[in-house]
Write a structure and sequence with these properties.
Blueprint lengths: L7 H10 L8 H12 L2 H4 L2 H8 L3 H25 L5 H9 L2 H38 L19 H16 L1 H26 L23 H9 L8 H4 L7 H31 L17 H6 L15 H8 L3 H35 L6 H4 L10 H17 L2 H29 L12 H16 L4 H25 L7
Helix pairs in contact: 2-9, 2-12, 2-15, 4-10, 5-10, 5-12, 5-18, 5-19, 6-7, 6-18, 7-8, 7-15, 7-17, 7-18, 7-20, 8-15, 8-17, 9-12, 9-15, 14-15, 15-17, 18-19, 18-20
């Protein structure tokens, strides 16, 4: 069977002929990774993790972080060998063939575009809270929640998505500079939270540790929380999408990937321990004692009951909420302000990653109107048409869907892409053992299978509805591929 595998040398040559401008160094890449990782996952989804796992969310963060770590090691090897745009899509094209590459690229839309929407919704929650606490301006729920949550349209989420899209159109270097500034704000905010929360740590708040058990098949429990807050770690792979715009990519890409992930993991463990240890993180149940799924109208109604108003699981801005409960009202406003200022950096990096995936797919002639879509702006050196299209789609999702639903959908695409990359590293070790590897994944025959197994476990720990959404999305992508890309691909001529 002809898998239409594109040789690595051909991929590199094609990128040189129609390449993006190289302007990013190791520091900028690391900041890009940190900017993508630290965001809605820790600032907002901590509440969802509390509802799914209770105090066990600390273990959930460890599980997710471990899976990301082994996946990052696999990513680093391929990214150093193939320093061009496209991330997992490009790697799959070179190792596993065009069909798998298309499915991966299609899945990455869920990772980056939907993730940008999720972060936009997360930002809107802090924006609404900040307006209320600091200025006394109350934004009606009808215009701060999407239809799924009982509102009409999330106007702040849509607005920030459009604003970041406009920034990304200006250029990569300019965007990276803004991102580095916003990353500094996020680090300062999380450091402040840890410094205030950990001193009042109470071990009694960790009992019961796992009120929903480890895994129940419905998306609750520690495994379900790990699958959801996996979103908190996604984004480090966006570093690899910038390979074609990176100076000395063989050295700088691995530094950006592994460095950003290691840095963020430490903060996540400290923050999650601070939340539970200071005020507790037990989930919300209905009158019959049944644990409720976050993001549903039933859960939202339960959170309006007087006995649940102070629960972390019910807060749209959990870190600020914790500081309010501890009496640090002024500092909670600072946390809210930091999230307000810094979360757009995550949206920026996610949009950046998605446009680069689309750019490479268009350059490979697998998308309709590929000539137009792969056009680079003569002044800003950015794929401006793709950026505008992606920004519009992100805006629509952000306006109408809740953050938890968007995060779970994101994770399904991310986990599939990570699994594919891990498989690709092992295949290439066998197929081309002598090809130069500027970075070599240590113990690949242990790390690779661990990454694949971990990604598979987290995928099947997602809610069944999310798994089904991914299946339908994949089938739709296959229809598009066989209707257009299969016939138009340059590799079709060689058959």
């Amino acid at each position: 069977m002809n898998w239409r595998i594109k040789p690595l040398d051909e991929i590199l040559a094609n990128a040189e002929r129609r390449s993006l401008k190289r302007s990013l160094g190791a520091f900028q890449l690391t900041m890009m990774g940190v900017g993508a990782v630290i965001g809605t996952g820790i600032f907002v989804l901590t509440a969802e993790a509390a509802q799914k796992a209770g105090p066990g969310m600390v273990l959930a963060f460890i599980i997710s972080g471990f899976v990301c770590a082994v996946a990052a090691l696999c990513y680093a090897e391929l990214a150093s060998m193939v320093p061009v745009s496209g991330s997992a899509y490009t790697y799959s094209y070179a190792v596993l063939g065009e069909l798998i590459a298309w499915v991966v690229g299609w899945a990455l839309i869920l990772e980056y575009a939907v993730a940008a929407s999720a972060v936009s919704v997360g930002w809107s929650k802090y924006f609404v809270g900040l307006m209320d606490r600091s200025l006394g301006i109350h934004i009606p729920e009808a215009f701060s929640r999407g239809i799924v949550e009982g509102g009409v349209m999330n106007v702040p989420a849509a607005a920030i998505a459009l604003l970041v899209t406009a920034l990304l159109l200006i250029g990569t270097r300019e965007s990276a500079r803004v991102n580095a500034f916003l990353v500094a704000i996020k680090i300062a905010a999380l450091t402040l939270f840890v410094a205030l929360a950990l001193p009042v740590f109470n071990a009694d708040n960790f009992e019961p540790f796992a009120p929903n058990g480890f895994w129940d098949g419905t998306g609750l429990g520690i495994a379900g929380a790990a699958a959801s807050i996996f979103f908190a770690y996604t984004g480090f792979d966006a570093v690899s999408t910038a390979a074609e715009e990176t100076t000395n990519p063989q050295r700088n890409i691995p530094i950006g990937l592994i460095g950003s992930l290691a840095f963020c993991t430490v903060f996540y463990l400290l923050v999650s321990a601070g939340v539970t240890g200071s005020v507790g993180s037990q989930p919300i149940a209905d009158a019959a004692g049944r644990m409720l799924a976050p993001g549903t109208q039933e859960f939202a109604m339960a959170c309006q009951l007087p006995q649940n108003l102070q629960q972390v699981a019910c807060s749209g801005e959990p870190l600020a909420h914790v500081l309010d409960l501890l009496g640090w009202n002024k500092f909670s406003q600072l946390i809210g302000l930091a999230a307000f200022l810094a979360l757009p950096s995550v949206i920026l990096v996610m949009l950046f990653g998605q446009t680069r995936i689309f750019f490479v797919m268009a350059r490979d002639r697998l998308l309709p109107f590929h000539d137009k879509l792969s056009t680079v702006h003569p002044k800003f050196h950015t794929p401006h048409i793709l950026t505008m299209i992606t920004g519009a789609a992100v805006t629509v999702f952000a306006a109408f869907f809740p953050v938890g639903v968007l995060a779970d959908i994101t994770n399904s695409g991310t986990l599939f892409a990570f699994l594919t990359v891990s498989l690709g590293v092992m295949v290439l070790r066998v197929r081309e053992p002598n090809r130069p590897r500027p970075f070599t994944t240590p113990a690949i025959w242990l790390v690779g299978p661990l990454s694949i197994a971990g990604c598979g476990f987290l995928f099947f720990s997602l809610p069944p509805a999310t798994q089904l959404t991914f299946l339908y999305w994949t089938l739709a992508g296959l229809v598009i591929y066989f209707a257009y890309g299969f016939r138009k691909s340059p590799l079709a001529k060689s058959e």
